[in-house]
Amino acid sequence: MKMTKLIGIAALLFLVQYDLLSQEGMKLAYDVPAKKWTEALPIGNGNLGAMVYGGVEQEHIQFNEETLWRGQPHDYSNKGAGNYLAEIRQLLTDGKQREAQDLATKEFMSEPLKQIHYQPFGDIHINFDGHEKYSNYSRTLDIENAISNVSYKVNDVAFEREVFSSFPDKVMVVHLTSSKSKALSFKIWLDAIHEDKQLKTSGKSQTLEVKIKDGVLKGVSTIKVDTDGIVEVEDGKLKIVDASKATIYMSAATNYINFKDVSGNPYQQVSETLKGIESKKFGKIKKRHIKDYQSLYNRFQLDFGDNGKSKVTTNKRIYDFWKDPNDPQLIALYVQYARYLMIASSRPGSKPPTLQGLWNDKIKPPWFSSYTTNINLEMNYWPVEVTNLSECHEPLFDFIEDISKTGSIVAKEHYNAEGWIVHHNVDIWRGAAPVNASNHGIWLSGGAWLCSHIWEHYLFTKDKEFLKENYPLMRDAALFYSQFLYKDPNTGYLISSPSNSPEIGGLVAGPTMDHQIIRALFKTIVEASAILETDHDFSEKLKTILPQIAPNKIGKHGQLQEWMEDRDDPENHHRHVSHLWAVYPGKGINYEETPELMKAAKQSLEYRGDNGTGWSLAWKINFWSRFKDGNRAYKLLNILLSPAEVPERKIRGGSYPNLFDAHPPFQIDGNFGGASGIVEMLLQSHLDKIELLPALPDALADGTVSGVCARGGFELSFTWKNSVLQEVEVLSKSGENCTLVYNNKMVEFNTKPGKKYKFDGFLNKQK
Ligand code: FUC
């Protein structure tokens, strides 16, 4: 009898948990239309993205297609640069940094020196005459369904708008309805801020063609209206009258095929895409969109509870969070929003998200809206494996493959080496040579860092086929470094020279970061070649090189040295914290194997301070989580989730009203890095075991997470209350041995693929 009662209570608790997990309120919500771009709401299908303003009389939807850039196929390498490598190194060895930098500026940089910009594509404008007086306005981004909604009333008629970008059907969709028949009338047209543009309007569709200044790319986009009303053409615009519903489908394409080929036919692509949906009704397209989106989104759920603030508009929540960081649902929303942005900007077959993701409205966007590899591009992908979006990692692997080709030319021309290398910036033409200026452009660990993503994907999925397929990319990167590393005449160690510690201290010999990353790559090759039973000799060679690489060192301030020399300035609050790479995302410095270095790394982070640009704050959240200081990590989260545009705050970094990360200006990396830092508070698996709640902040004392992934091919669900673990379930996907750790308790067990294992809060096995 008693037993049945207990089971009943357990079932009830289970249901309560599931109620908690239903994720109501996973929405960004506003009670006014967007005035600025950073108030508008992003949608995307990996390739076609837009920002929806939600205006009442005038709707504005600014859109992008990811392959519209300036420039043309171009190899940025500088033929003969390698002839100066030895001299630059010698000048650095002799302490003549200025001369080394000058010579490198003159002879070693890419041709041309600068890369090119990602471009906005166009704008959809919709005018609704007579809607100037309205009530009941609401604007949301529903991130459970990936739909942006607008609703309001004019007199007694309710108007609704849904906007989404469909991955399965490759179109953007705007669906408009009125509650009263024939009450919906509007004008719709395309436009663009490009000088060279043309419009053609006929029947129920309009086509925009844009040609990019300073480049060979052109873009074509078509809107097509499906409505129960009447469609006319007036003043070059489509005019819809007497409708109760209307759906606008939009397709866009360019002539870009790949970084060497621009022979595509965008007219044909656009018309084929629109033909593909001709026989489908809006309802079906919406259903397919939601199903596709949720097949990724629903895999991971996170609940920290809801103290009622989820009912407040998102812009106000951000403001309130600054003053009182007590809004646990906002933290869960932040993580899910990052996953939403990832699904919207990185799908198989698409390009990786740029510095601004898929979204850019400027002809000259900040930092070209390209790919910066000395932190930003990699940070974009930090949450992807752990939050169960493994497939979204694919565009980065395609990117690595491209860059290994251009990078092999650079390896040869600049370093007389085999293999491949990429420096700190890459554009759509896959430039791999050092750009901009020698003091920060010549940075050497880009290739190795990118390769760590291949390895991480393998560790999370245990997909041996994937490893086999991508191993040559990692091996060729390692081959480059095995030939590039240089025996420092001053210390006898192998060092990376010339290079820099990202954006601090100029061109130098032997920045700590490079050595950490190169060491990690070599260790990966040793492990991967053993798993794949290949490349024995190369692996043996790397084993002999590894101990010769300059080690991490502790300096006179108790800090981890950023350079070979003990010259760190404790007053330097620079945004980059590159020498802590081995703490996160690397694992070479950790409490178990290298406690002294961990202490020094923590000291370095203390010196750097708590402020920073958006991505810098996000990185620090991950660091403090690895240092197992959840409350400190939460303090950084408080800064990241505070309003970016309140002058009296006097702090850079924060969030815009649409929850986009502010560098400032907008840069998407902080959204992704912030999300990964939050998950890192709950679970860490970098040391061959799964540690639960390793850095739980007091502010997140109660919660449930499900579908969170760990290295070794595991998926976990667990619950905690009053900061104490209650129960855990582990799904083994590949049958590896599993080690769980919580609060100084450890349990090890064998697993079978597809089986689940349950434990109570003391890690006692449950049936
Ligand atoms: C690096 C950073 C900047 C910015 C830029 C895109 O150069 O130092 O802060 O994020 O990338």
UniProtKB/TrEMBL annotation:
<dbReference type="Pfam" id="PF21307">
    <property type="entry name" value="Glyco_hydro_95_C"/>
</dbReference>
<dbReference type="Pfam" id="PF22124">
    <property type="entry name" value="Glyco_hydro_95_cat"/>
</dbReference>
<dbReference type="GO" id="GO:0004560">
    <property type="term" value="F:alpha-L-fucosidase activity"/>
</dbReference>
<dbReference type="Pfam" id="PF14498">
    <property type="entry name" value="Glyco_hyd_65N_2"/>
</dbReference>
<feature type="domain" description="Glycosyl hydrolase family 95 N-terminal">
    <location>
        <begin position="28"/>
        <end position="256"/>
    </location>
</feature>
<dbReference type="GO" id="GO:0005975">
    <property type="term" value="P:carbohydrate metabolic process"/>
</dbReference>
<dbReference type="InterPro" id="IPR012341">
    <property type="entry name" value="6hp_glycosidase-like_sf"/>
</dbReference>
<dbReference type="InterPro" id="IPR027414">
    <property type="entry name" value="GH95_N_dom"/>
</dbReference>
<protein>
    <submittedName>
        <fullName>Alpha-L-fucosidase</fullName>
    </submittedName>
</protein>
<feature type="domain" description="Glycosyl hydrolase family 95 catalytic">
    <location>
        <begin position="282"/>
        <end position="682"/>
    </location>
</feature>
<dbReference type="InterPro" id="IPR008928">
    <property type="entry name" value="6-hairpin_glycosidase_sf"/>
</dbReference>
<dbReference type="InterPro" id="IPR016518">
    <property type="entry name" value="Alpha-L-fucosidase"/>
</dbReference>
<feature type="domain" description="Alpha fucosidase A-like C-terminal">
    <location>
        <begin position="684"/>
        <end position="747"/>
    </location>
</feature>
<dbReference type="InterPro" id="IPR049053">
    <property type="entry name" value="AFCA-like_C"/>
</dbReference>
<dbReference type="InterPro" id="IPR054363">
    <property type="entry name" value="GH95_cat"/>
</dbReference>
